[in-house]
UniProtKB/TrEMBL annotation:
PANTHER family listed in its UniProt record: 1-AMINOCYCLOPROPANE-1-CARBOXYLATE OXIDASE HOMOLOG 1 (PTHR10209:SF791), OXIDOREDUCTASE, 2OG-FE II OXYGENASE FAMILY PROTEIN (PTHR10209)
The protein, known as: Fe2OG dioxygenase domain-containing protein
Named cofactor requirement(s): Fe cation
SUPFAM superfamilies attached to this UniProt entry: Clavaminate synthase-like
Organism (species): Rhamnella rubrinervis
Keywords: Iron, Metal-binding, Oxidoreductase
Pfam families recorded: 2OG-FeII_Oxy, DIOX_N
Family, as annotated: Belongs to the iron/ascorbate-dependent oxidoreductase family.
Domain Fe2OG dioxygenase: 213-315
Length: 366
């Protein structure tokens, strides 16, 4: 069951959204209050049901798992890995990586830290609740609460770790140390991934780093509480990321799906693995060589589900740096498909649109 136009016509969505926001307790606050029926603002859009779910075909479709273990030891092996990355980026826009050198203990503690943040005393957590995106650390429910047509069943904290990291004392006490350590390690991994992506495009290994694709880093801790009516809503609506690159740490609960060949394909939990996906800005500068994969997260009745997304981009930071299709990739047969934009202008458009089920990329096409 999804919301119908009749269901949705008899209530004032804007007022209900505002009332929900003003509680500053997010979706977890609803669960803590014992709701057995979800508010109408969370009903998913009917079009979310039009695409096919993966089922028997799941074995036919599965995102690549790439082993980075022997990367530095053997130039032949590196070439093979780059080729696997290229193929994954051109077809799926998603892949999983193993043997990436971030210890499992660090990954587990990072997930635990996100859980501690969202499950700490409500009054302490409320101090971080804001819609002011200029704050170095903030927490809220749905970044696009006032613009998206449907509200998602999740709460989130966002921390800008680069280029100007917050002072340690400004980080939430319950997860301060692990935020610093995990961010340090995932940024190092990000630099390696940008080298592989550059090589996969046939460019110098430092090309994307020299373009400052790794300059900005945002760490995002999602908390998807158990939902009493998971079939009526989504944890995250269909979207592609606005970043250059996203590295995702997910827990065992599952629910993440990528859209492939008109099927929703489950991305299973792989112990010790991280998920990597191409963002819109990398699709733009690669002139559509790499695909920014559309994905979503199902709501679940067994939660909470925890995930930690690291976005490589500068977001809303004011900068005059322009990004357009990389000139070395262009030719008479492959002219530029996109106009140049700043990261901030792209993100402003993306945020204004919200997770509406449509990509922001077409707006920037020539």
């Amino acid at each position: 069951m999804v919301a119908t136009s009749t269901d949705m016509a008899d209530y004032d969505r804007a007022s209900e959204v505002k009332a929900f926001d003003e509680t500053k307790v997010g979706v977890k606050g609803l669960v803590d209050a014992g709701v057995t029926q979800i508010p109408r603002i969370f009903y998913k859009l009917p079009e979310e049901n039009f695409l096919k779910e993966s089922s028997a075909d799941q074995t036919k479709f599965s995102i690549p798992v790439i082993d980075l273990g022997e990367l530095s030891k053997d130039p032949v092996r590196r070439k093979e890995i780059v080729e696997k990355v290229r193929e994954a980026c051109e077809t799926w826009g998603f892949f999983q990586i193993v043997n990436h050198e971030i210890p499992v203990s660090v990954m587990e503690e990072m997930k635990d830290g996100v859980k501690r943040f969202h499950e700490q005393d409500t009054e302490v957590k409320k101090q971080f609740y804001t819609r002011d995106r200029l704050k170095p650390v903030f927490y809220n429910s749905n970044f696009d609460l006032y613009s998206a047509p449907s509200t998602n069943w999740r709460d989130t904290f966002i921390i800008k770790m680069a280029p100007n990291p917050p002072k340690p004392e400004d980080l939430p006490e319950v997860c301060r140390d692990i935020l610093i350590e995990y961010s340090r390690q995932v940024m190092k991994l990000g630099n390696l991934l940008f080298e592989l992506l550059s090589e996969a495009l046939g460019l110098n290994p430092n090309h994307l780093k020299d373009m400052d694709c790794a300059e900005g880093v945002r760490l995002i801790g999602h908390y998807y509480p158990a939902c009493p009516e998971p079939e009526l809503t989504l944890g995250t609506s269909k979207h592609s990321d606005s970043s250059f690159l996203t590295v995702l740490l997910q827990d065992h609960i599952g629910g993440l799906q990528v859209l492939y060949d008109d099927y929703w394909i489950d991305i299973p939990f792989e112990p010790g693995a991280l998920i990597v996906n191409i963002g819109d800005l990398l699709q733009l500068i690669s002139n559509d060589r790499f695909k920014s994969g559309e994905h979503r997260v199902l709501a679940n009745g067994s939660g909470p589900r925890i995930s930690v997304a690291t976005f490589f981009f500068t977001g809303m930071i004011q900068t005059s740096k322009l990004y357009g299709p990389i000139k070395e990739l262009l030719s008479e047969a492959n002219p530029p498909k996109y106009r140049e934009t700043t990261v901030r202008d792209y993100c402003t458009f993306f945020r204004g649109k919200g997770l509406s089920g449509t990509s922001a990329l077409p707006y920037f096409k020539i």
